[in-house]
Amino acid sequence: MLLPRQGRNYSYADYLTWNGEERWEVLDGIAYMQSAPSRIHQEISGELYRQFANYLQGKNCRVYHAPFCVRLDVEDNDNDVKNVVEPDITIICDSSKLDERGCKGTPDLIIEILSPSTGKNDKVFKFNKYEKAGVKEYWVVEPDQKIVSIFLLQSNARYGRPEMYTDEDKARISIFPDLEIDLNLVFSQQQ
Fold it and tell me: Where are the chain's structural domains?
């Protein structure tokens, strides 16, 4: 199993050969190694997953937590897929996008929980990739500030100004109008 080297262009076919003990993503053919999440990161992710999973029980949409592979490029040849991500939380409502390896195509909702090593990728590179791919709702969770920014895809295929929430709020979900995520529970373990 070869690991990525700097300066080379990678694809999903390469990604499949890498050591499964390390987490990698590929953005525009560039490989990025993911660091192990912190305890706080895991607790936030777990609570978000729990609230979404409870709501989605018995519904057509599915929620997945990292590591879960999302191939943003819909290509027949794995060598042509140059954007492979592992969001912290992914929701997919079109089951035809799911296969044994994860999601092939655009999820409906993606949540990224920032850490010092991922902030730039999550706020800039992935933001642009998710917008271009047509992810309807993109959340950026900032554990240190206890803030959630929710970006909604507008009719012009661009993200509008974010809806901002704190640990004192309940976040509304555009794709599930009757669901509110209790952010007090999400951030309550941070002590």
Answer: 38-72+85-187
Least confident of 20-24, 56-60, 98-102, 155-159: 20-24
Return the half-sphere exposure (C-beta side, CA atoms, 13 A cut-off) of residue 76. Answer: 0
pTM here? 0.92
Instruction: Give yes or no for a contact between 24 and 34, defined as CB atoms under 8 angstroms apart.
Output: yes
Query: What phi and psi values does residue 118 have, to the nearest 5 degrees?
Result: -115, -5
Task: Kindly state the helix (H) or strand (E) to which residue 176 belongs, with its residue range.
Answer: strand 176-182
- C-alpha angle 119/86/133, rounded to 5°? 85
Which of 110, 4, 97, 22 is closest to 13 using CA atoms? 4
**According to CATH, what is the number of the domain 38-72+85-187?**
3.90.1570.10
Q: Distance (Å, rounded) from C-alpha 77 to C-alpha 173? A: 34
